[in-house]
Amino acid sequence: KYLLAELENELTKIRHYNQEEFIDDKIEELKNLHKRFPISMEPNLKDGEGGFRSANLVYWLGNILYNINKINQLPKEIIAQNEYIEFHKALNFLFSVRSALHLASGKKEDVLRLELIPQVAQYLGYKRSYKEQMKFAQKVSHQLKVVKLYTTIWINELTNKDLLTHNLPVLKPKLEINSFRDLLEFLSSQTEEFEAHPTLLKALINVSKPYRATPRIYDSISKIFFQAHSASIVKTLLDAHLISYTISPLKKVLNLPQFDGYHQYPVGIHSIKCLYELEHIKDIKLKEIFDKLNNREKALIKLVVLLHDSGKGRERDHSLVGADLFSVYAKKLNFNKDEIKIGRKLIHYHTHMSKVAQKEDLNSEQTILKFASIFNTQKLLDLIYILTYSDMSGVGIGVYNDFNSRLIQTLYNQASIAIKDDKKIYHISRRLKKEKSIKQNEIFQKLPKLLQKNILTIPSTLLFIKYTPQKIIDIAQKSYKLDDYIIHINNSNFLTIEIIRKNNFDLSYFLHKLRKLDIVNMDICKLFNGIKYFNIEFNDKIDNSELPLIEDIIYNALNSTHKLELPTPNIKDIQLEIDCNHSQEHAMMRVISKNQKGLLSYIMSIFDNNGIDITSAKIYTKSGKVDDLFLIEKNGNFCNNTNLIKKELTE
Question: Are the CB atoms for 59 and 69 separated by under 8 Å?
Fold first, then answer.
């Protein structure tokens, strides 16, 4: 009784003597707490946005100003009955969460830490499953936003003060606006960044609107993305609980938690932070790229950034779901087919640039070409660069840093060069299609993860262009943990010899011994772990009695090296092409001449004598002419000896 009397005395003093000072101090205190504890993946239920202190302040203000003992005793012109019911329901839920949180942590605890969510959710009747825990965390986030919205409005109604930072202009509604579309038009006409005043939030939640958004409303929404500071407008719609109505693809993910140890905010808040970062690019080079976009391109990338995670929380890949949601919504906002196609691709591959830059070898030409084949125009490269920056920056401070920004810029610069080589992009695109088919193959999916990785990183693109997915998998399976070599001879229609070898194969000797047979095709493909695959097709079928002789020749070629005296073929300078700048990793040599017995054997002997390693070779013979193409590793042995090689081949 004594303490209660003391409290009443203090409140009486405040009412009569220190009312303004008390209100200012408490509002400033709450503003500082909200700055420290925004709604996040680990919300502070007491001191954070939408927490108990916000509700308590409404109570104390009501007590000081109106001498009430319960919030619902405040005048109805300040707190409408329907608003109070929703607020009270949210607050009761949060109280039950805190009680369960105390039990789960074994102490007084106000922060809903990620590791405590399973136990807290179970105490509140949720099943012990990931899906149920997600459902619980979503509800916590939503109810915090409910408390935040109404306490923000009510504090202003009670005191004519607000919780805004006032670092930006404060936007209030115009008195003459009385329809939802007019309010949207008012918002979408804002050319400067702003903070939404509580009276604007109140106007937005109270104005009547159609059951579903109309084409005219979508026209107004579309204008938002053509403004320089659309993040301010979208955040206002979020704070007024109107995102689900106006930007429907975000409806299911607004409060969706992200239990990945990487993201700091639920999807909805993260998406708006990404949009904000896009409109406040700190990277000078990237800012120049963004500024060069036209107005429609800027609007498109803003919508893509906002919706890039809209597909999360589904069973299907969220990038694919997000691309579908974007397509439907972008059409309503009057983006054309070409723009929607670009947006779909960006959302489908929105994590690709950061993954490639940070996890793959940027010195590998294959890595660069694969990336460039997806984003095969400068415009696409510019847009995925901007999207990657925005996505990473929206995660939190320091996520996009000097280290990974250099990696991403390196990938961007190298891909910008690569897209100019149409032929290479064409070949790598064909390879990627084959890789996609391989990944969908049931046999591939059952292979060890290491072998799967080995297959997809085989340096020889020829293998992927020429052979079926099943054949590639078969070759790789035979090569996996290969001790020495495997031979397969087929003499049904014409002689074909397949060899997979790990160590020596004296190809010059082998070809010399079989020089009387015409080779119509020979493929040499470098696989993995030093293993190569040879497929040699001849024009003739031999007598089966000669097969043991063929086997002996192969055995000798595999088990020893031979010094040969070979005749010099007749090749003119014009028939020989050598390019040491073919790519970062490979030099190229091409011979187009008349077919000559022993030609291939002679070329291989030169390669062997100079320690030249072939990554891929395509040998083709037709109508008495040969077209032999070799891709050669740049280990110095080839490019440092090009004059010698030319001399030995042409003199």
Answer: no
Conformational region of residue 646, where left means phi above 0, alpha means psi within -120 to 50, and beta covers everything else: alpha
Q: Which amino acid is at 329?
A: Y
The three state secondary structure string of 388-400 is HHHHHHCCCCCCC
Residue 26's CB is within 10 A of a number of other CB atoms, namely 19
User: Of 619, 570, 616, nearest to 593 (Cα)?
Assistant: 570
CB 310 within 8 A of CB 249: yes
Task: Give the torsion sign (CA, 300, 301, 307, 308).
Answer: positive
573 within 8 A of 643, measured Cβ to Cβ: no
Residue 472's nearest CA partner among 527, 531, 513 is 527
Three-state SS for 97? Answer: helix
Range list of H helices, 189-261: 198-206, 215-224, 230-239, 243-246
Residue pointed to by tokens 């203000």: 61
Residue whose tokens read 């003992």: 69
Long-range contacts for 633-642 (Cβ within 8 Å, ≥24 apart)? 633/585, 633/586, 633/587, 634/580, 634/584, 634/585, 634/586, 634/587, 635/611, 637/610, 637/611, 637/612, 637/613, 638/580, 638/587, 638/589, 638/610, 638/612, 639/580, 639/587, 641/610, 642/578, 642/580
DSSP letter string, 397-445:
TTSS-HHHHHHHHHHHHHHHHHTT-HHHHHHHHHHHHHHHHHHH-HHHH
- Name the stretches of the chain with pLDDT < 50: 1
Question: CA geometry: angle at 364 spanning 362 and 369, to 5°?
Answer: 90
Name which of 409, 357, 369, 430 is nearest 582 in CA terms: 369
Q: Which two tokens stand for residue 173?
A: 């509604």
Please name each of the domains of the chain with its CATH number.
Answer: 1-163 (1.20.120), 249-420 (1.10.3210), 482-651 (3.40.1020)
This prediction has a pTM of 0.81
What per-residue confidence (pLDDT) applies to 96? 97
CA-to-CA dists, residue 558 to 392, 457, 527, 553, 561, angstroms: 52, 26, 18, 9, 8
Task: Say how far apart CA 251 and CA 336 lie, in whole Å.
Answer: 24
235: three-class secondary structure by DSSP: helix
Angle at 165 between CA 163 and CA 171, to 5 degrees: 80
Give Cβ neighbours of residue 359 (< 8 Å, ≥ 6 apart). none
Segments of 193-320 assigned E as strands: 195-196
Report the amino acid identity of residue 289. Answer: I
Q: How many CB atoms lie within 10 A of CB 104?
A: 20
Name, in order, each residue with C-beta under 8 angstroms of 562's C-beta and a sequence gap of 6 or more. 506, 508, 509, 556
User: What's the rounded Cα separation, in Å, for the pair 265 and 257?
Assistant: 7
Asked whether the beta carbons of 145 and 38 are under 8 A apart, the reply is: no
Residue 102's H or E segment, with its range, is helix 81-105
Token pair for 602 = 């002679």
Q: What Å distances lie between residue 4 and 7, 9, 10, 16, CA to CA?
A: 5, 9, 10, 19
Q: Which residues contact 384 (CB under 8 A, 6 or more apart)?
A: 346, 349, 350, 352, 353, 375
Q: Which residue has the tokens 């409109």?
A: 279
Q: 482, 481, 438, 476: which is closest to 458 by C-alpha? A: 476
Q: What is the pLDDT of residues 43-83, one digit of tens each?
A: 999 999 999 999 999 998 998 888 888 999 999 999 999 99
- SS percent in the chain: helix, strand, coil, step 5: 55, 10, 35
Q: Check: CB of residue 441 under 8 Å from CB of residue 473.
A: yes
The angle formed by the CA atoms of residues 288, 294 and 295, to the nearest 5 degrees, is 115
Q: What is the DSSP string of 362-396?
A: TT-HHHHHHHHHHS-SHHHHHHHHHHHHHHHHTT-
